Amino acid sequence: MLRVDIISIFPEYFREAFDYGIIRRARAAGLINIQPHDLRSWTSDKHHVVDDRPFGGGDGMVLKPEPIFAAVESLAGARRREEVPDGKRVVLLSPQGKQFTQSLASEFADCEHLILICGRYEGVDERVAESLVTDEISIGDYVLSGGEPAALVVVDAVVRLIPGALGSETSATTESFSDGLLDYPHYTRPPEFEHMKVPEVLLTGHHAEIAKWRREAAEAKTKRNRPDLLK
Ligand code: 9D3
Predict the structure, then answer these.
(1) Atom of ligand 1 nearest to the CA of 94
(2) Of all atoms in ligand 1, which is nearest to the CA of residue 121?
(3) Is 95 left (phi over 0), alpha (psi -120 to 50) or beta?
């Protein structure tokens, strides 16, 4: 059973997202236990303040370190990166992180416990990234308003790699990215739709020719949409 704790100022953001499809099935099957937590529950002041103004000036607010360190201590039993046991990862979702990849998703899927920390506002006090987390992760080069959608992406990518999570569907290892090419194009009925025809070879039942067409179509599509994957 993989345990995933998510630390956020918007824990309700996640409720419905984990109630669909593969994640719902994996939860029902006892393969994963996902718990969103309210960062404010680790504050000790009357007004549950989680943010403050940046030293040195500048716009916006910064998430304070104390509630985040307290949250990770209570969930992972560690106050420093070196104290995080093997099998646990403390992950900060941040625009300054290294790019989240399928390879990192595989590493996370092999863990027993993930703690995902969602940033907000202008950022998170840097002592969290410097001294507490094992991984600082971005999901790509675009600006989100917080780490919550990134945490959803990470959970989705990880859950489907847990043995048993995909059920009868294709095994995760035979999919797009594992051979460095995009997936080949898929078609279903009808064979002609508004003058758009399904490639003839797919209707023939010639399995060797179909395999060759799919390989070439995957290469063409990769060249057009993701030339970086061919370099
Ligand atoms: C102007 C400086 N911005 C940093 C690039 C400010 C800023 C933008 C976005 C500060 C925080 C955020 C919130 N984003 C995330 O927390 C985030 C994120 C993202 O924006 N893109 C891709 N991956 C991620 S993971 C967390």
Answers:
(1) 26
(2) 11
(3) alpha
Cα 144 to ligand 1 centroid, rounded to whole Å: 5
Rounded to the nearest 5 percent, the helix, strand and coil shares of the chain are 40, 20, 40
Predicted local distance difference test score (pLDDT) of residue 121: 83
What is the predicted pLDDT for the residue at 167? 76
pLDDT of 176: 47
The pocket around ligand 1, CB under 6 angstroms, is made up of 93-95, 119, 122-123, 138-140, 142-147, 150
Q: Which of 96, 95, 89, 50 is nearest to 70 (CA)?
A: 50
DSSP state of 79: S
Residue 163 CA to ligand 1 centre (angstroms): 32
Euclidean distance between the first and the last CA atom of the chain, given in angstroms as a whole number: 38
**pLDDT mean values, one per 10 residues, the chain (231 residues):** 98 97 97 98 98 97 98 98 98 98 98 96 96 98 98 98 81 59 98 98 98 98 98 93
C-alpha 148 to ligand 1 mean position (Å): 11
